[in-house]
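Bumping my old thread because nobody answered last time. Still need a sequence for this structure:
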């Protein structure tokens, strides 16, 4: 059973002209259906609808967006990227009982960017996968 493998599912649903769901009303229907399916499988499920008509951050393109993500984890990310990342992460913290409210969860996520905890965890994940995390890329 799915609930024996997963403790929760969080679906990111995008709305807007560049999104698969299209209009906000279609995104809401998709989100509702996904949450109902997950809950019916015995897994705590939620969906967060975001607008996809405007790019996040300052950069466009995979490699540049990765660089910007690393900057975000170093506490130097553009506010729109930090905002959506904190909101998405806060949902997970609330589902896991690690935050009592969305705002508390967002504050916790933002703190990990400022104090370097997010970047340290990312580097640990890379090391666990056998990747070299030398300082040649200025990550630490």
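Sorry it took so long. Here it is:
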């Amino acid at each position: 059973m799915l609930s024996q493998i997963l403790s929760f599912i969080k679906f990111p649903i995008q709305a807007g002209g560049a999104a698969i769901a299209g209009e906000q009303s279609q995104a809401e229907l998709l989100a509702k259906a996904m949450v109902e399916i997950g809950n019916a499988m015995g897994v705590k499920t939620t969906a967060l609808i975001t607008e996809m008509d405007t790019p996040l951050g300052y950069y466009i393109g995979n490699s540049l967006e990765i660089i910007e993500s690393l900057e975000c984890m170093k506490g130097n990310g553009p506010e729109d990227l930090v905002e959506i990342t904190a909101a998405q992460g806060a949902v997970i913290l609330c589902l896991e009982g690690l935050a009592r409210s969305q705002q508390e969860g967002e504050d916790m996520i933002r703190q990990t960017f400022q104090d370097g905890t997010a970047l340290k965890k990312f580097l640990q994940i890379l090391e666990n996968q056998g990747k070299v995390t030398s300082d040649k890329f200025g990550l630490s």
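The beta strands are 8-15, 44-51. Let me know if any region looks off to you.
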